Amino acid sequence: MMDRRTVVKGMGATIGAAMTAKSYARIKGANDRINVATIGVNGRGQAHIAAFTKVPNVSLTHIVDCDSAVLAKRVAAFSERGLPVPRTESDYRRLLQNKDVDIVTVATPDFSHVKIATDAMNAGHHVYCEKPVGISPAEGEAMIAVQKRTGRKLQIGNQQRSSPETRQLADLVKAGDLGHIYEAQTWYANARKPIGHGKRVSPPATLDWDMWQGPRPRAAYRSNLVPYNWHWVWQYGTGEICNNGMHEIDVARWLMGLTYPSQVEARGQRQFFNDDDWDMYDSMALTLAFDGDRTIRWDGQSGNAMLRYGRGRGVLLLGTKGSAVVDRNGYELYDLSGKQTRVVKAAGESETTGTVGEGVLDIYHAGNLVDNVRGKSTTLNSPIAEGHISTTLCHLGNMAYRTGEILTVDPKTGRPKSAEALKLWAVDYQPGWEIKV
Fold first, then answer.
1. pLDDT digits (tens, 9 = 90+) for 413-426
2. Total-model pTM
3. Are residues 169 and 343 in contact, defined by beta-carbon separation less than 8 angstroms?
């Protein structure tokens, strides 16, 4: 059930949802070219560009950003490499009017993911949307509703689901090689720097601050928010758990065959740079308890980059016959004595703790969406239903932290029984920026 604040206007909106005969003919055949536009190209969007331009017979026709300086940098990079320069646009809504664009990729800040993705599907485009699925669980519910109504293909950016090695491990787990998987321990470690104290000043002349804020209620520009530090401010961000923890929590949940937990406990603290504008935890220990005495744990360290199993991020599966450690670049198997029995390394490398996160998995994941658009495949590796569940687990962690409660959760719906936590199930929007379901 979607909250009244999340979904409100434009019921039945189908702007451009019916594809023209020309566009259908273009994508029907496996050999036909697919046109792609990327929205948000300052950070993770660079990985989107790199991935889709490496998928055969795909053309990056547009890049979109509300900062003209960022667009200029991307254009210069294309020119310097002697590559075709995509057209630029500062307002994504104008881009969505272009029916020659088949796939829109969304790599903007978390709070605008769902607004842009749903607008794109309502306009008839297929979508690759970066994780997390929105800034609240109700946004994920809205995303599911729009995807079902429009029938557009929607891939969520949990790219490890397209890893051949992780999928191989999933088959081993399903076959029972590790026995009963009763616990997953997941982690993310980085040594982030302080963000200081921002000043209320005029935004840069190159930045459309109103467009950047998108659906969020308007606030004054602060000098230390853009382009990245908004992650650590509740007005715009969702914390390290949604920023990075979602990847490993998603992998653990997928490999264990779990959906929603019955109990959520989160212990979060500020351990570093306590006098700056970072207004949420930088260290968190999360426990997700599922029916059947199964557990997923996440340890998030935003200020201490201590590696585990030689990895800055990863998943440890504990089973009754053995264990496995897996990350984006392969996996290792261990017997019950802790002896390593197998090492599988990925054929191509993917970045782990950098802010762009570029790697071969992006190409696989982009290719999976393109295959679905072309009709060569009918299975998305990270569909919205799965992305929503994994995102909701992360939101539940934030809810437990913010309320200071150990949450009891309905394992069928993911909804906490706490009245205080339910206040965080949905968010308010800037008038005129509501999500159209």
1. 999 999 999 999 99
2. 0.91
3. no
